[in-house]
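ok trying again, last paste got cut off:
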Amino acid sequence: MKTTIKILSLSLLAIFVITSCKKKTEVGPQGPQGSQGIQGETGNANVVSTYTIALTSWSLAPGSYAYSSEDVNLPKLDSAAYYGGTIISYYYASTTMSTMPYSDGVCTFMPEYSIGSMRVLFYFNNHSTPFSPGGAIVRVVIIPPAVKLQYPGFDFSNYSKVKETFNLKD
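nice, full thing came through this time. structure:
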């Protein structure tokens, strides 16, 4: 019982000491305005990045029915854009830009992304061994997360609309 009273007394004393020790401070008057700092470089972390890529080198994976393009370096495809932004690839088919994956009913062009790069797979829809597709033009648009949030529900499948909205240059 004596021990319990000692513990209770010490606990109350500790609570009293902790809660009663407050430092009183007063805010003084505001000081004078400091001098103007030097102008920094113009920049914007929310820049939409684009790449126009001519794919010419393809390889058929052994035992596969798909050709794979060479890996293409995309420096602006960082982890923020990869995980939270929007990455759209367009395949230049004849006279139009079509979103990828692109299929004409016979064959398909399918993008594969990783941080910092991408490649394109090409295959016949019936899974027969395809021929090398030769040259293909792909346009990649990378929208950072902050820009994506400014356009909720935006339809990125229409390249002309994307180009106009984000002032993309060919």
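cool. The longest strand covers residues 86-93. The radius of gyration is 30 Å.
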